[in-house]
Amino acid sequence: MENFILLIVSGLTNGSVYGLIGLSLSLIYVSSRVINFAQGEFVMLGALLTLMFITTIALPAPLAILFVLLVSLLIGLALERLVYAPLVRRADPLTVIIGTFAGSVIMAGAALIIWGPEQQSIPNIFSITPVELGLLITTPQQCAIIASFLSFVILTWWILYKTNFGLTVRAVGVNVNVSQLMGIRASRVVRFSFLFSAFVSATAGLLVGPLLGGQASMGGLLTVKGFMAAILGGLGSPFAAAAGGMLIGILEALVSGYGNSLYAEPIIFGTILVVLLIRPYGLLGDFEAVQR
User: Fold this and answer.
1) Model confidence pLDDT, tens digit, residues 73-117
2) DSSP string of the chain?
3) Where are the domains of the chain?
4) Is the dihedral of CA 184, 186, 190, 191 positive or negative?
5) Which of 91, 131, 221, 292: CA 20 to 30 A from 3?
6) 233 and 240 in contact (C-beta within 8 Å)?
7) Would you say 41 and 224 are in contact if contact means Cβ atoms under 8 Å apart?
8) Per-residue pLDDT averaged across 282-292, rounded?
9) pLDDT tens-digit readout, 192-226
10) Which residues does 263 contact at the CB level (< 8 Å), separation at least 6?
11) Which among 20, 77, 75, 10 is positioned nearest to 48, based on CA atoms?
C-alpha cells in the first residue's frame, strides 16, 4: 500500500508537469489552430534559467524567479512575433507548425551553447526533504508542483469563463473569422495565449527542475508528453488536456513501479490509440464541445 501511494504521488507530480504543458499547447491551439512544438523548451528554460539566476548570478530566490519568468515571457513574445505572426500571414498552418519546431531547435541549440549537454543540478525553491503525512510521504517541492497545476487550471478557468477577455478567447476558438467580423482582434488573443503558455511552462520548469534535473535536450520529450496529454484528454480544451496529463503521469508511474519503465511509453501510446479509436476527440473532447 505504501509503495502504491508513493507511485501515485510521483505520478501526480509528473502528471502536473505534463498537464501544464498540455494545457499550454491546447490554449495556443484553440486560439490559433497551431501546435506549438516549442512548448516543452519553456520548461527547459524555466529550469536552466533558475540555475543561472540563483547559482551563477547568486540572486535571492524571489528575485531570481521574477527574472526567470520575465525572460521566458520575452522569449514567448519573440516566438509569437518572429515565427508565428510572419508565417501565419503568408503560409498554411502546417508551415507555421514547422516554424515553431524550428524555434524549438534554436532554443535548444542556444541552451546547449550556454549550459552544455550535461545534466545540470537545479537549485530547489522549496525543501526536497521527505515529510510524512500519515501514509503519504512527499516533499514540499512535489506539493508545490501539484499546487501550481491546480492553481493554473483554476486561473485559466477564471480567465476564460469569468472575464470579458476570456469571452473573446473562446469566441476566437469557436470561429476566428466570425470573431474578427465582430471586432475582436484575434492577433491579441493569440499573443496572449503564447505569453500565458510561456509563463505556465516556465513555472513548471523552475519547480520540477530540482527533481528531474535540467538539460538542454529535455524540452523535446516534454513537448511530446504534453502533446500526448492534449490528444488523450481532448486537444480543443485546455482543461481536458490538463486532465490527460494527469492520467499519463499516473499511468507512467504505475507501469514503471509495478513493471518496467521501458514498457511505459508503448503502453501509454497504446492507450491513446485505443481511446482515439473509441472517442476520436479524446476522453473529454465531446463533453467540452457540448459545453461550449
Assistant:
1) 999 999 999 999 999 888 788 899 999 999 999 999 999 999 999
2) -HHHHHHHHHHHHHHHHHHHHHHHHHHHHHHHS---TTHHHHHHHHHHHHIIIIIIS---HHHHHHHHHHHHHHHHHHHIIIIIHHHHTTS-HHHHHHHHHHHHHHHHHHHHHHH-SS-BPPPPSS--S-EEETTEEE-HHHHHHHHHHHHHHHHHHHHHHHSHHHHHHHHHHH-HHHHHHTT--HHHHHHHHHHHHHHHHHHHHHHHHHHH-B-TTHHHHHHHHHHHHHHHH-TT-HHHHHHHHHHHHHHHHHHHHHS-GGGHHHHHHHHHHHHHHH-TT-TTHHHHHHH-
3) 2-291
4) negative
5) 221
6) yes
7) no
8) 60
9) 999 999 999 999 999 999 988 899 999 999 999 99
10) 255
11) 75
User: How many other C-beta atoms can be found within 10 angstroms of the C-beta atom of residue 245?
Assistant: 29
CA distance 283 to 292: 16
Question: Which residue is it, cell 478557468?
Answer: 157
2-291 classified as CATH 2.60.40: no
Q: What is the pLDDT of residues 111-130, one digit of tens each?
A: 999 999 999 999 988 888 88
